[in-house]
TrEMBL record:
It comes from Betta splendens. The keyword Cell wall biogenesis/degradation does not apply. This is Cadherin-related family member 5-like isoform X4. GO terms for molecular function: beta-catenin binding; cadherin binding; calcium ion binding. Signal peptide: none annotated.
Length: 585
């Protein structure tokens, strides 16, 4: 890992002639090294070198007393061999074994799976604990240095149940473990000298109940007959039953079903066990095979074995084995009996060619074949079933049509009732609307009446207030005029001229009363408020009050009527304004 252009060494040559500079050429197989120049024989690093890949490099250095190009004669040269040794550098931590090396970004790392172990509950295991995949140990990642490694616990041993050897890494128990479960220990391995180079791993120790019974097969020897690839093996000792290999564990109750128990065939992949049933996975010749099955308890590593004898008979086309039929004399269905003969059995248990002295074997009919009578009975049964199905379908269709007509009538009746209810609701709604309009009309009339009463009360209140200001006592029920204001130019009043420019001849006071002149377009109309009672006085006074202007006069009869009950009406502009304006409409 020396950097590029790092010097390795200088190897100059001498020339007795001493006629000039010498020229050098370096030959390197993988261009790991180079010269500083053609005239300087200093060797430099040209590429990074890894100790695990390159441990030594052989170089050839050539020198001559003439320039390299163009060639000049005469020229004398000489060569030398340089061996460069690559040494290791301490740049890797210890690696726990076993591990798999991987290169990440130019650096080499070694990853391990960790370790596992088992101990019994409330028991102290003697000696060193057996771990998987092997004993705990680590080696220096720099193989060229191979520095010593020391071990210690980082976490997981708070109860002080376990101990680890600093030099070997072996783990042992100091006391029994009182808690069931898994204890995870973290172990650190560091170099003895360069302690900053270290690595860690985990050790999972399972504390479990002690096993009292190992797994056990139901029988020590099994026999099976298989007819082809993918076919399930049969038990020749039980008619029409497949072979099933089962192992039990006494630690799991009366049934003995251990969920951690697995059964496999040892040493071959031609056969496979699926849920205890045997299948042939490859095409094999007719022969008899002797195998061994293993039942392993993954929780305790306890196991049991049993022998298995498998007979391959590809000529057997039925899964039913007649009890009196010998497998060694079976032939395929349809095979001529004259072509087969009894001979010495082969290794697979199938007869081979030989003499014809033995009687021919009987033909075995497959159990799945049906005769003509059976097929006829089956056809008749199917025909009867189809006829019954047709009858049922016809009855269902007819009933559906009847139900549809009945539902239509029910729908019409429901629609008729819905219409009646809707009409009743509409009539009720119209009656309700008429009631609402009547109540609204009566409420408006009441509001109008109340408004008139408020006007009367306000007019009387204004009259009393005006009388109080003049120092006179107001007549009960009458509204005296307010105090006269200063006349303003341009406004109508007493003695105002009409539009023709002439004053009214009756302006001013009259005997027994006074006259208020009123100017209208095209003429005038006097109003008498004295001894005589004007029939239109009430209406004019009322119009003056409603118009918000004019002077209120007390009539001569002494009753002081305000004129609110008059029936005649005049325009508001026809009244003479003699006082302040009151808008009390």
């Amino acid at each position: 890992m020396s950097p590029v252009d790092a010097p390795v060494g200088s190897f100059p040559a001498t020339d007795r002639d001493n006629l000039g500079p010498l020229y050098y050429t370096l030959t390197s197989g993988a261009d790991q090294f180079k010269l500083r120049s053609t005239t300087n024989p200093e060797v430099l690093v040209n590429k990074l070198l890894e100790y695990d890949k390159v441990k030594s490099v052989q170089l050839v250095l050539e020198v001559q007393d003439t320039p390299l190009a163009p060639p000049v004669e005469p020229s004398f040269s000489s060569t030398a061999t340089i061996v460069v040794t690559v040494t290791d550098r301490d740049d890797r931590p210890p690696w726990f074994q076993p591990c798999s090396r991987q290169e990440v970004g130019g650096a080499v790392v070694c990853l391990g799976p960790g370790y596992t172990g088992r101990v019994d509950h409330n028991e102290q295991a003697p000696g060193v604990l057996q771990l998987k995949p092997g004993p705990l140990y680590a080696v220096d990642g720099d193989s060229g240095i191979n520095e010593g490694v020391t071990y210690r616990f980082l976490s997981g041993n708070d109860d002080g149940v376990f101990a680890i050897s600093p030099s070997t890494g072996n783990i042992s128990m100091l006391k029994p473990s009182g808690a069931l479960g898994t204890v995870t220990l973290t172990v650190m391995a560091a170099q003895t000298v360069n302690t900053h180079q270290f690595s860690t791993t985990s050790v999972a120790i399972s504390v479990q109940v002690k096993s009292l019974h190992p797994p056990q097969f139901q029988q020590p020897v099994y026999e099976a007959v298989v007819t082809g690839v993918g076919a399930m093996a049969l038990d020749p000792n039980k008619e029409d039953e497949p072979l099933r290999i089962v192992a039990t564990d006494g630690d799991y109750g009366s049934g003995g079903v251990n969920p951690h128990l697995s059964i496999s065939i040892k040493g071959t992949s031609d056969f496979a066990l699926i849920d205890g049933f045997l299948f042939m996975m490859k095409d094999l010749p007719d022969a008899t095979f002797t195998l061994q099955v293993v039942a392993l308890d993954a929780s305790t590593d306890e196991s049991d074995t049993a022998d298995l004898t498998v007979t391959v008979a590809t000529g057997l086309t039925t899964t039913t084995l007649p009890p009196s039929t010998d497998l060694t004399n079976m032939t395929t269905v349809g095979e001529s009996t004259a072509s087969s003969s009894a001979g010495p059995p082969t290794e697979g248990g199938v007869t081979g060619p030989g003499s014809s002295s033995a009687p021919p074997p009987a033909e075995i009919a497959p159990s799945g074949r049906f005769g003509a009578a059976d097929m006829a009975a089956l056809g008749a049964t199917l025909g009867a079933l189809l006829f019954l199905c047709a009858l049922v379908i016809g009855a269902l269709v007819r009933r559906t049509r009847n139900d549809k007509a009945a539902w239509r009538k029910i729908h019409e009746a429901s629609a008729f009732r819905t219409g009646q209810r809707a009409g009743g609701r509409q009539r009720g709604h119209s009656v309700q609307q008429r009631g609402v309009r009547g109540r609204r009309r009566r409420r408006q009339q009441l509001q109008l009446l109340l408004g008139r009463r408020r006007i009367r009360r306000r007019v009387a209140s204004d009259a009393r207030a005006a009388a109080a200001q003049r120092g006179r006592r107001p007549v009960r029920g009458a509204a005296p005029p307010p105090p006269a204001r200063r006349r303003q130019p341009g406004r109508l009043g007493r003695g105002r001229q009409r539009e023709g420019g002439e004053a009214h001849p009756d302006q001013g006071a009259a005997p027994g009363g006074r006259v208020q002149g009123r100017v209208v377009q095209g003429g005038h109309r006097p109003q008498h408020t004295g001894g005589g009672r004007d029939p239109g006085q009430r209406g004019r006074a009322r119009r003056g009050a409603e118009g918000g202007s004019g002077q209120w006069d007390r009539s001569e009869d002494g009753r002081g009527r305000s004129g609110l009950h008059g029936q005649q009406r005049r325009p508001v502009g026809a009244l003479r304004h003699t006082g302040s304006t009151h808008n009390k409409s």
